[in-house]
Amino acid sequence: MSGPSRDVWVYVEHMKGAVAPHTYELLGRGRNLAQTLGGRLVAVLLGHRAVDMARTLGVADLVLRVEHEQLGAFTPDAHARTVAALAARTRPYLMLCGATSAGIDLASLLSALLQIPMVANVRAVQVEDGRVVATSQLCGGKLLCDVEVPAGAVLTVLAGAYPAEAGASTREPPVETAAPPDLLNQIRVRVERLLEPAAGDVDITRMPILVAVGRGIQRKENLPLAEEIAGLLGGAVCASRPVIDQGWLPLSRQVGKSGMTVKPSLYLALGISGAPEHLEGMRNAALIVAVNTDPAAPIFNVAHYGIVADMFEIIPALTARLKMKKAA
Amino acid sequence: MRIAVVLTMVPDLVEELEIDASGKALDTQWLHYVLSETDDHALEQALLLKDRHGAHVSVFALDYGDADQTLFTALAKGADEALKITPLPEGVLGRREAAAIFADVLRAHPADLILTGVQAINDLDGHLAGLLGGLLNLPFVGVTRSVEATGEGGIIVQKEYPGGAAAEISVPLPAVIGVISAPQPPRYVPVARIREAMKTRSIDTVAASGAAAQPVPTILRMYKPQAAGQATMITGAPEHVARELAAILESRGLLR
Q: Which residues, in sequence order, are CB contacts of A159 under 8 Å at separation 6+?
């Protein structure tokens, strides 16, 4: 394999015929990086009947498209092996993927298949004195790590790290269609059926007020405390992943990377530390109030108001105050 | 079915994390490790498959942190065999180097199904599951929330997509699966049973091979983030905090 070009590739994530908003964030940053590195910005669009989406990728210098039935819904094997085949012909200097349920699969597999370095959970990437430096977020946001990114590396970039507006364009980009690699016909990993989000009793994406509970709720028996506040506020209870994994609330109440993205007028976060996966789903709420015992909890970096306290001391006081207001 | 479960230990976030003198790594002198949460789910998924279909479950861990405790706990939960990879190369192991060591060991201990957590809180240079899929050149699916045997020599996994969506994906075996969660919470095992396992069961050791140098990024510095300072902090007694908060909500028309 020859040395890498100066090009920056962005893997285009899409679902149901629409490009994922996160992809535009990557394209915007990729545009800047490609310009600094002196290369092209290439949007890599894999899919089945995905040609229309290429028109929305005008910020790229080139859309590199591969069409195949196996690329219709994402599977890591089909997508990573196709990108690997493309990269074997023209190696990019950098490849940007979302730190998403597709991106983390794709990037790790690519890293091993192509024997290229990977940097995970990147929240900033720039060129400094001719070298690419990325800042990765570790330990639920409690640590940051600056790394020098070698040429040819693949990065997974956290949602919200860059504005999506910079990746939007009305320009019609040039599209190059590449032949699908033969190995796609040999891959036996197949999507049998797509599963829609479970219809819950409450659609949290439509609720104006959400009371969110995290690991700090400690046990299922404590959930009524949050439900009472939600009831007083006219909202609903939702949760971060650990609460859902315990089976205390249904999947339809999960906020975050693989759950719902919400944008309520009020997001009251109780006992949620603010792991990147959770922040991804709620950071655009109009008003975020967080209660956590850890003053360094990352949730306070996105909250508008913060309370460093035991939620079990705050909840009864707030419940009493809200009842008093209601009665007045 | 032979199932291999790859277990990794990660820093316990309940403890204060300190950076070492180099400024490029965690200070491990007082660092307390716990089993990575998604690996715990991978173990639960393996034990569920064993419960339903019968399987031989082997658990693998690198020799750092409290690997023995982790492995004996897995045995007490129902794993059939525990293997500790030791000694390890000098220095801090990145995820990529760990993947290369695990891959070498798993080649010598082949399994029909390799399960591990899809990501860990300290992943910097890759995620173990996907790296293993690529290094072992096996079919791979990550971010799964259930794995079921088909009875036809394969498995059906549910992979999560964004927005609460998912897909059922058929995967031929052997394969590597990266688990985000098992269909049920990891089972609890009483301390007495772990102690019993320590007395009655044993951990086999496997030598870490001299895995080839892996392509990894260069760490420039590790540090704690400065608070973004966005949040206005409300302090005081709970009643005072509640009063302030209610006033804020009322001023924004959020109290009905």
A: A22, A25, A98, A99, A100, A257, A280
Q: B185 to chain A: which residues are within 8 Å by CB? A: 245-247
Helix (H) or strand (E) holding B224: none
Question: Touching check for B92 and chain A: CB below 8 Å?
Answer: no
What six digits make up the tokens of A22?
A: 């996160």
Domain made up of A204-327: CATH architecture: 3-Layer(aba) Sandwich (3.40)
Residues carrying CATH 3.40.50.620, chain A: 8-186
Quick check: A102 and B161 CB within 8 A? yes
Domains of chain B: 2-206 (3.40.50.620)
- What is the residue-wise DSSP string for A184-223? GGG---EEEEEEPPPP-SS-GGG-SEEEEE-GGG-SGGGH
DSSP A57: -
Q: For an interface test with A, which of B137, B171, B187, B233 has the most A Cβ atoms less than 10 Å from its Cβ?
A: B233
Of B130, B215, B232, the CB nearest to A115: B215
Q: Collect all residues of chain A within an 8 Å Cβ-Cβ radius of residue B26.
A: 143
Residues of A in contact with B120 (CB under 8 A): none
Laid out side by side, the sheet with A236-239 consists of A236-239, A209-213, A266-270, A288-292, A305-308, B232-233
CATH class of A8-186: alpha beta
Confidence (pTM): 0.90
* Sequence ranges of chain A with CATH classification 3.40.50.1220: 204-327
Q: Which chain A residue lies closest to B103 (C-alpha atoms)? A: A112
Q: Tell me the HSE value of B246 on the side-chain side, using a 13 A CA sphere.
A: 22
CA distance B115 to B43: 8
C-beta pairs of A52-55 under 8 Å, 24+ apart in sequence: A52/A17, A53/A12, A53/A14, A53/A17, A53/A18, A53/A19, A54/A173, A54/A175, A55/A172, A55/A173
Contact list in A for residue B41 (CB cut-off 8 A) is: 245
User: Over the stretch A275-285, which tens digit does the pLDDT of each residue have?
Assistant: 888 998 998 89
How does pLDDT run across B176-221, given as a tens digit for each residue?
A: 999 999 999 999 999 999 999 999 999 999 998 766 677 889 999 9
The answer to whether B248 faces chain A, any CB pair under 8 Å, is yes
Contact B139, B133 (CB under 8 A): yes
Residues lower than pLDDT 70 in chain A: 1-2
Chain A and chain B share a number of CB contacts under 8 A equal to: 300
Q: Which of B122, B178, B217 sits opposite A138 (nearest CB)?
A: B122
**Residue B222 in contact with partner chain A when CB distance is under 8 A:** yes
Q: Are A265 and B228 an interchain contact pair (Cβ–Cβ within 8 Å)?
A: no
Q: What's the whole-number average pLDDT of chain B?
A: 94
For chain B positions 139-198, those within 8 Å of chain A (CB to CB) are 139-143, 156, 158-172, 175, 178, 180-181, 184-185
Q: pLDDT tens digits, residue range B40-88?
A: 999 999 999 999 999 999 999 999 999 999 999 999 999 999 999 999 8
